[in-house]
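Key result, reporting period 2: structure in, sequence out.
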């Protein structure tokens, strides 16, 4: 059977989706909810480090290429962010509010909003426009904060 371009693209998309799902929550499969909580906390700490580094770059008027790279890495992380909160992972030392699970559609939309904001940041940085990059960085920060207000305990 010959694969058409559309069919081949569909197979490739399915394979990528399965690979992403496999990477998103390996700790849950291996060791339970506590592991997935630890994994997502480590990932969020890394994302915080990216934000701090981007802020330093923008404040020092440094080269924007690293901003684009960091934004792309953050974008990949947040594409799988909802999968990092599977059912049963609402235990342990987590600041996730119950709304993460009870208002799932809103949480998934908040994550999608972050992916979009990071895409704008990445594109602005890649364009070399420092003003647009600073604006996109502030917008991404606002998007991050909006999610925290609804889905993260203080």
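The corresponding designed sequence is given below.
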């Amino acid at each position: 059977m010959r694969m058409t371009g559309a069919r081949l693209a569909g197979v490739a998309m399915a394979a990528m989706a399965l690979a992403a799902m496999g990477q998103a929550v390996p700790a849950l499969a291996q060791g339970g909810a506590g592991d997935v909580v630890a994994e997502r906390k480590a990932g969020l700490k890394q994302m915080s480090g990216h934000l701090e580094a981007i802020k330093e770059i923008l404040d020092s008027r440094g080269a924007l290429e690293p901003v684009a790279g960091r934004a792309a890495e953050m974008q990949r992380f947040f594409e799988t962010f909802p999968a990092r909160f599977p059912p049963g992972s609402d235990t342990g030392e987590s600041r996730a509010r119950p709304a993460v699970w009870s208002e799932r559609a809103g949480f998934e939309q908040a994550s999608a909003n972050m992916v979009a904001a990071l895409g704008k940041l990445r594109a602005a940085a890649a364009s070399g426009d420092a003003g647009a990059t600073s604006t996109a960085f502030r917008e991404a920060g606002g998007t991050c904060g909006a999610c925290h207000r609804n889905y993260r305990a203080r």
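Confidence is low (pLDDT under 50) at residues 1-30. The chain is about 75% helix and 0% strand. This case is discussed further under Risks and Mitigation.
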